[in-house]
Amino acid sequence: MNTWPCQAEVILDRPAHEVIPYVRDGLVEALDSSRSRLQLGAWSWAGLAATLARWDADIEVVSPAELRAAFADLADRAKRAAGSGPAVRPLGE
Protein backbone atom coordinates (compact mmCIF):
# COMPACT_ATOMS: atom_id res chain seq x y z
CA MET A 1 0.00 0.00 0.00
CA ASN A 2 1.46 3.39 0.92
CA THR A 3 3.41 4.92 3.79
CA TRP A 4 0.84 7.33 5.22
CA PRO A 5 0.51 7.20 9.02
CA CYS A 6 -3.26 6.63 8.78
CA GLN A 7 -4.29 3.86 6.38
CA ALA A 8 -7.68 2.32 5.79
CA GLU A 9 -9.73 0.06 3.61
CA VAL A 10 -13.27 0.90 2.52
CA ILE A 11 -15.88 -0.31 0.09
CA LEU A 12 -17.21 2.49 -2.05
CA ASP A 13 -20.53 2.31 -3.91
CA ARG A 14 -18.90 3.50 -7.11
CA PRO A 15 -17.47 1.43 -9.95
CA ALA A 16 -13.69 1.18 -10.03
CA HIS A 17 -13.43 2.96 -13.39
CA GLU A 18 -14.98 6.08 -11.77
CA VAL A 19 -12.68 5.93 -8.74
CA ILE A 20 -9.30 5.10 -10.31
CA PRO A 21 -8.72 8.48 -12.03
CA TYR A 22 -8.94 10.28 -8.67
CA VAL A 23 -6.79 7.99 -6.54
CA ARG A 24 -3.11 8.80 -6.90
CA ASP A 25 -1.65 7.19 -3.79
CA GLY A 26 -3.87 4.19 -3.10
CA LEU A 27 -5.20 0.95 -4.47
CA VAL A 28 -8.55 0.42 -6.17
CA GLU A 29 -10.06 -3.00 -6.82
CA ALA A 30 -13.32 -3.66 -8.67
CA LEU A 31 -15.65 -5.79 -6.56
CA ASP A 32 -18.45 -5.84 -9.13
CA SER A 33 -19.88 -3.47 -11.73
CA SER A 34 -20.98 -0.90 -9.15
CA ARG A 35 -18.66 -1.22 -6.12
CA SER A 36 -14.94 -0.98 -5.48
CA ARG A 37 -12.54 -1.65 -2.65
CA LEU A 38 -10.27 1.28 -1.89
CA GLN A 39 -7.11 1.25 0.21
CA LEU A 40 -5.95 4.76 0.95
CA GLY A 41 -3.91 6.75 3.43
CA ALA A 42 -3.57 10.29 4.80
CA TRP A 43 -1.84 12.31 7.51
CA SER A 44 -4.83 12.13 9.84
CA TRP A 45 -8.03 10.15 10.30
CA ALA A 46 -10.07 13.34 9.89
CA GLY A 47 -8.28 14.08 6.63
CA LEU A 48 -8.86 10.56 5.36
CA ALA A 49 -12.58 10.71 6.23
CA ALA A 50 -12.89 14.05 4.42
CA THR A 51 -11.05 12.68 1.39
CA LEU A 52 -13.38 9.70 1.19
CA ALA A 53 -16.47 11.85 1.75
CA ARG A 54 -15.83 13.71 -1.50
CA TRP A 55 -17.42 10.82 -3.39
CA ASP A 56 -21.18 11.11 -3.52
CA ALA A 57 -21.55 7.46 -2.56
CA ASP A 58 -22.21 5.17 0.35
CA ILE A 59 -19.03 4.05 2.11
CA GLU A 60 -18.51 0.92 4.18
CA VAL A 61 -15.46 1.11 6.44
CA VAL A 62 -13.73 -2.27 6.42
CA SER A 63 -10.96 -1.12 8.77
CA PRO A 64 -9.85 0.42 11.08
CA ALA A 65 -12.12 1.63 13.87
CA GLU A 66 -10.26 4.97 13.94
CA LEU A 67 -11.72 5.82 10.53
CA ARG A 68 -15.24 5.05 11.76
CA ALA A 69 -14.66 7.46 14.66
CA ALA A 70 -13.34 10.12 12.27
CA PHE A 71 -16.47 9.78 10.13
CA ALA A 72 -18.62 10.22 13.26
CA ASP A 73 -16.70 13.41 14.14
CA LEU A 74 -17.02 14.68 10.56
CA ALA A 75 -20.76 13.99 10.60
CA ASP A 76 -21.12 15.92 13.87
CA ARG A 77 -19.24 18.89 12.41
CA ALA A 78 -21.32 18.81 9.23
CA LYS A 79 -24.54 18.69 11.26
CA ARG A 80 -23.45 21.74 13.26
CA ALA A 81 -22.48 23.56 10.07
CA ALA A 82 -25.84 22.77 8.49
CA GLY A 83 -27.60 24.44 11.40
CA SER A 84 -25.43 27.55 11.59
CA GLY A 85 -25.52 30.84 9.77
CA PRO A 86 -28.33 32.57 7.92
CA ALA A 87 -31.16 30.65 6.34
CA VAL A 88 -30.29 29.30 2.92
CA ARG A 89 -32.03 31.09 0.09
CA PRO A 90 -32.50 29.68 -3.41
CA LEU A 91 -30.03 31.00 -5.97
CA GLY A 92 -31.20 34.12 -7.72
CA GLU A 93 -33.17 35.57 -4.82
> In angstroms, what is the radius of gyration?
15 Å
User: How much of the residues is beta strand, in percent?
Assistant: 25-35%
CATH architecture verdict: 2-Layer Sandwich
How are strands sequenced across the largest beta sheet?
2-3-1-4
Reported for the largest beta sheet, the result is: 4 strands, antiparallel
Q: What is the averaged pLDDT score?
A: 91
- Give the beta-strand count: 4
Overall helicity: 25-40%
State the separation between the terminal residues, measured CA to CA. 49 Å
- Text of the CATH class: Alpha Beta
The count of domains is 1
Please count the helical segments. Answer: 3
The gross shape turns out to be globular
Task: Please trace the helix and strand order, writing H or E for each element.
Answer: EHEEHEH
Low-confidence parts lasting 5 or more residues at pLDDT below 50?
A: none
Blueprint (SSEs and pairs):
Blueprint: E1 6-12, H1 16-19, E2 26-30, E3 36-42, H2 45-53, E4 59-63, H3 65-82
Antiparallel strand pairs: 1-3, 1-4, 2-3
Helix pairs in contact: 2-3
Keywords:
single chain; alpha+beta; 93 residues; Alpha-Beta Plaits; 4 strands; 3 helices
Give an overview in words.
There is one protein chain. The chain has helices at about 15-20, 45-55, 65-80, and strands spanning about 5-10, 25-30, 35-40, 60-65. The mean pLDDT is about 90. The chain has a 4-stranded antiparallel sheet. The protein has 3 helices and 4 strands, in the order βαββαβα. Helix content is about 35%, strand content about 25%.
Write a brief structural summary.
The chain is α+β, with helices and mostly antiparallel strands and 93 residues long. 33% of the residues lie in helices and 26% in strands.
